[in-house]
Amino acid sequence: MAAIYALLVGVAMGALLQRVRASSPGMILANLRLENLSIIKFMATTIAVGMILVYVLDAAMPQVLHFDIKPTYLIGVALGGVIFGVGFALGGYCPGTCVVGVSEGRRDALFAILGGVLGALLFAVLYSALVDPLIKPLDLGKVRVQDFVHVPAVAVALIFGGGMLAIVRLLPTIRNTPR
Amino acid sequence: MTHSATTTALPEPTTTRLTAGLPAWATLGILFGVVSAASIVLWGPIGVSGTYPRFVGAVLRLVDPAYAAANPYLVKMGALFKPETFLVIGLVIGGFVAARTDKRAKAPAVERVHAMETSNAARYRDAFLGGLLIVFGARLAGGCTSGHIISGITQLSLSGIVFGAAVFASGIFTAKLIRKGA
Q1: Quick check: B53 and A124 in contact, CB under 8 A?
Q2: Can you tell me the ipTM of this complex?
Q3: How far apart are CA B148 and CA B106, in angstroms?
Q4: What is the pLDDT of residues B63-72, one digit of tens each?
C-alpha cells in the first residue's frame, strides 16, 4: 500500500513542481540571485502548511503519523548543504526537479541525472573514508525543535509555521525585473 | 550585462480563476503542503535523493555483485524497491502530464542559465557537474531539498533547518559569484 501512496504523492509533487516552474533551471537561478522569490516563497508556504497540518493532526491523534526524523550530525549535514548549494547554483536542478525536467523534455536535466548517479556512486565509494571525520562527530541524534524548548510540539508548529507564512507575505513579489 | 533574458525577466506564474487573488506560488505551495502532510499520514515523509544510491546499488549488484555486497553504504541503503522509488516514478508521470496539459510555452530542451554557458555543451557540463554535487552533498547530509528541507523542516527536525540554511547560503553566494566572474 505504501508504494501506491508514494506513487500518488510523487504524481502530485511532479505536477506541482512543473506548474510552479521549479523544474526550470532559469527560475532556480533567478531565485538564488534573489531577482524572483517565487520558488523560495513556494517552498516556505509548503513547509509552513505541512508543519501546521501534521502537528495539529498529531495532537489530535497521537502515534498515527509516520514521522521519520533524520539525525543532525552537524559537520556532514552542514558540509553536505554547502556542496549541494554549489551544485544547485551551477546546474539549477535538485535531485527531484531534474527528474521532472526530463519528463517535460529538458535535455540538460538528463545530464543532471547522469551527474547525480555518478555523485551517488562516488559517495558510496568514499563512504567508509567519510564516516569517521564527517558523519560520526558532533552527532546530536534525531532531534527536533520541540526537544529544545518546553512547549508542546503543536504550539511550536503554529508559531514557526505562522511566522514563516507572515514573512512570506511580507517578501517583495518581484525584484529587478523589467516592466 | 551579457545575461540572457530568461534569467532576469521571469514573471511569477499567474493565478487561475479557481484561486483568484492568490499568487500561483501560494496556491501551489498550499497544495504541496497538504500533499507533504498527507504523505506523512499515509506512509512517510517525501524524499528523493536516496533513490540515486539505491539505483547505483541495484546496477552494481548485477555488474559486480561482490563489490555491491562489500560496500557498506550500498548495503545500508538497501534494495531499490522502496516507497521512495515509486515516488520518483510518480514525479515522471506527474511532470509529464502537467507539462502536456500546460497552456504556457513548452519547456525549452536546453535552458542556459549562466553567461559562461556559451554553447549547449557548456550547459550540459554545468548540469552534469551540478547534478553530481547536489547528489553527493545530499547523500553526505542524508537528504536533499525534499527529504531535508521540505520534509525535515515540516517535521521541525533540526537537521532540515541546518541543511536548508547551508544550501541557501551557499547557493545564493555561488549564484552571485558565478554572475560576477562570468
Answers
A1: yes
A2: 0.96
A3: 30
A4: 999 999 999 9
